[in-house]
Amino acid sequence: MAAKVTIADVARYANVSRQTVSNVLNSPEVVKEETRQRVLAAVNALGYRVSAAARQMRTGRSRLLAVRIETTQDGMNVFDRFLHGLTESAARSDYRVLLYTATDDRSEIDTIDQLLGEFEPDGFVLTSTHHGDARASWLAERDLPFVTFGRPWGASEAGHPWVDVDGAAGTEAATRHLLGDGHRRIGFIGWEAGSGVGDDRRAGWSRALAAEGLDTALTLETDGSPDQGRAAAQELVERGATALVCVSDSVALGALQVTPAVVGFDDTPVAAAIGLTSLGQPLAEAAARCVELLTDRLSGRPTAPHVLLSPTLVTRKPTLAIRKDPRS
């Protein structure tokens, strides 16, 4: 068996000190570029592998960022795209992603507390933010580094870095798209009031109609399922709506069984398969910005207070068969 390559072997090969090799691996910003490249070439040539345990002992860093795995919502989960982007972005910054599960704020706080004792993650990425988010308060009170994907929805909760997608701008663009097609009675099918994300998406629809002096009363709340989306669409069409903006693709899938003039949100693979016009979230960019904000804080670099990204309207022609109203 070949002898294990050590940091001393790399130092001799690159003709530098062991401290310089350590700096290149742990604090590359303090090493001249020419020297850094020479050391990295030696690392590659010798096949040196850094021991994660040894690095943590030297630097006090685990190089781990922890994030919860989201459960499927509305029957269509877009979180896997965010998680994939987070893992790739973390790796580019020499971090790894530690996954965990939780059912609510309290269980997530308990899990985070346990992870701190067992794995000592350097920072946390919180998702699915909401009013009165106890997780953010708990981390902030302990001065633990974290970023949220999703803005803090209460004014008193805004003191941490966050990344979010501007849902209101998206639904406003969707509504203007339908206005451009000649619709003047455009309904909105949302989630129950009190959801920060859902209320934000409703606000964009309302803003676009109000700017044209049009009716903003054609709106209904649902649990987010396709069945309730279909029922809400049927009621809104009976009330005179000729087009619908939906809070999610799951809701839009139900609405599309009533009328073809529907816009969803999330641009899921299902939307592409059935020709549903939908708003796509820049999830890879959101993940990258989350890692950027968090690693900036961990490195002591100045960081932006927040990042608000814009969704993109993807227009299509629906291929899903529209049900005929039996009364027609």
From TrEMBL:
Pfam families: LacI, Peripla_BP_3
Residue span(s) of domain HTH lacI-type: 5-59
Keywords assigned: DNA-binding, Transcription, Transcription regulation
Single GO molecular function: DNA-binding transcription factor activity
InterPro entries recorded: HTH_LacI, LacI/GalR-like_sensor, Lambda_DNA-bd_dom_sf, Peripla_BP_I
Domain of life, per lineage: Bacteria
Name of the protein: Transcriptional regulator, LacI family
